[in-house]
Amino acid sequence: MSNLKKEEQSKRTKKRLLLQSNSNQDRLINNSKTDRFILLLNKVVLGLVVLIVMIPLLYVLLGSFLQPHILVTRGISFNPEHWTIDGYVRIFTDGTIMRGFLNSILYAGGFTLISVGFSILAGYSLSIDNLVGKKALMIFFLFTMFFNGGMIPTYLLVRELGMINTPWAVILPGAVTVWNIILARTYFKALPNELKEAARIDGASDFKIFLNIILPLAKPIIFVLALYAFIGQWNSYFNAMIYLEDRSLYPLQLIMRDILIQNEVQPGMIADQLARAEMQRIAEMIKYSSIVVASLPLLIMYPFFQKYFEKGVMVGSLK
């Protein structure tokens, strides 16, 4: 036991010395004036970019907690006496915004499942070398990537399919994109063929190879495609504005559009006896609170998807 402890201690000492030598080498390499100037310039530029991005976000976040008259007359205030959560209370107690939030989750979730499922299946099929008609299929997909029927023919098609004023009108159109299929195909082609050949020797079918070998290795591209699809659908409101007539089916982004652009606030949010000036002040507070609530799912998702998102950018660069 004592010998094992000594060996472990020696290994730890070697690792520590190796890390120290590497850090010393890095310091020696980056010790030139040109390198230090470039690093300093990079830090300054990145700091400015962070400030440009963070200042509007902090302004909206702080504005959502300020009292309406303070926000309108004085702007942002750090005095705790001027803070309030009335905007969030009105949002979470209002049925219109919460229904829109749930609708957005339904649309984005269904859109993501369909998009990722079909993109993975099509991408894996096109990555097989001996697929019959592979070139014809790729030409067909690429043709649809550059040419489409346009908004009016698409609307007529959706209407003829009976999807007007239904959730399917928001979920199905545009769920499968050629770009995502190409990303999945590029990822699958990078996987070694020896894995599939070894599985075939063991008697595995194509379905088992895809289910038990390919899919576990495809987690990075699955998460990347899911992130792309969810964010794109979550921020979308144009299809809902065209195809939906029932306000109970509106997604959150379309409701926010009415609040932010058209300055429409539902009567249920504000008591009828309030004066018009007070209504405008509370509407201003609801705007900021709505922006924060609408951004929460994306802010929660992205830290868990970040490493896969970086891999997805590399896959796209190898296209």
TrEMBL record:
Keywords: Cell membrane, Membrane, Transmembrane, Transmembrane helix, Transport. Belongs to the binding-protein-dependent transport system permease family. Coiled coil: none annotated. The chain crosses the membrane at residues 37-62, 105-124, 136-156, 168-188, 209-231, 285-305. It is found in: Cell membrane. This is Carbohydrate ABC transporter permease. Residues 101-304 form the ABC transmembrane type-1 domain. Pfam families: BPD_transp_1 (PF00528). The keyword Transport applies. One of its GO terms (biological process) is transmembrane transport. The keyword Metal-binding does not apply. Its main location: membrane. It comes from Halalkalibacter alkaliphilus. GO terms for cellular component: plasma membrane. It is a multi-pass membrane protein. Signal peptide: none annotated.
